[in-house]
UniProtKB/TrEMBL annotation:
Listed PROSITE patterns: ARF
MF GO annotations: GTP binding; GTPase activity; metal ion binding
InterPro entries tied to this protein: ARL15, P-loop_NTPase, Small_GTPase_ARF/SAR
Pfam families found in the cross-reference section: Arf
Residues spanning the membrane: none
Protein name in the entry: ADP-ribosylation factor-like protein 15
SUPFAM superfamilies: P-loop containing nucleoside triphosphate hydrolases (SSF52540)
Residues holding Mg(2+): T67, T87
The keyword Cytoplasm appears for this protein: no
């Protein structure tokens, strides 16, 4: 009988030690995991989202203000800077407007000689920005309207959203965006694509940057599902 009781006491002691060891091991595992997680937080963070690239075509006659507009959008100008020289061929500007969204602007020169080659750059674009000098003459306005109509008739640009930028609104002879919309015949254009019209001034480059990027995002979101997952 005494032998049975002795074996029982030994078994209880052994069980108690095993239980204590298991508890300590569990606590150690939790502490180690917590330390590793805090020191290597990046290992447990979700993978970064891939950037979405938006290709934007920027057109307009020479001297309309395309280069100044893009320089302002890219944050390269202040209200005291001189206007940059007109683009003679083509130029690129890249603007990151969100953590995972990039706007790639391709500006084409607006001289008559370069306009002959505009259609070579129409492919693989998501949106068209067309810049008009609000203070230009009637003749230049008519020429600008004809150039716009030709480029929008291209099959490569069918249905793409259009952002019309009425630049140089600070000039005393500038006409209103509403009149420019009418003279360019945008009423017909709006039947086949989304259209937005904004005005800009060379005295407010930060305002131009905010207005252009905001309107572009609105046009893309309304026209396509391109930004659905952004």
């Amino acid at each position: 009988m005494e032998q049975v009781k002795e074996e029982e006491r030994r078994r209880q002691k052994t069980t108690g030690r095993c239980t204590g060891c298991s508890f300590l091991c569990a606590v150690c595992r939790i502490v180690c995991y917590t330390c590793i997680r805090r020191s290597c937080q990046c290992c447990f963070s979700p993978a970064p989202r891939a950037r979405t690239e938006i290709s934007i075509l920027v057109l307009g006659l020479q001297g309309a203000g395309k280069t100044t507009l893009l320089s302002a959008v890219a944050g390269e100008l202040t209200t005291h800077d001189e206007e940059p020289a007109p683009t003679m061929g083509f130029a690129f500007k890249t603007v990151n407007v969100q953590d995972h969204l990039t706007l790639n602007f391709q500006e084409l020169g607006g001289s008559e000689q370069i306009r002959m080659y505009w259609d070579r750059y129409y492919a693989c674009k998501h949106l068209v920005v067309y810049v008009v000098d609000s203070s230009c003459s009637e003749e230049v306005m008519r020429e600008s309207g004809e150039a716009l109509a030709r480029c929008l008739s291209s099959p490569s640009l069918t249905g793409l959203p259009l952002l019309l930028v009425c630049s140089k609104q600070e000039v005393p002879s500038a006409i209103s965006p509403a009149k420019i919309r009418e003279r360019l015949g945008l009423g017909e254009v709006e039947r086949e694509r989304k259209v937005a019209v904004i005005s800009t001034s060379n005295r407010g480059h930060q305002t131009a940057r905010e207005s252009v990027t905001k309107t572009i995002l609105q046009l893309l979101d309304a026209q396509t599902e391109l930004l659905q997952n952004i």
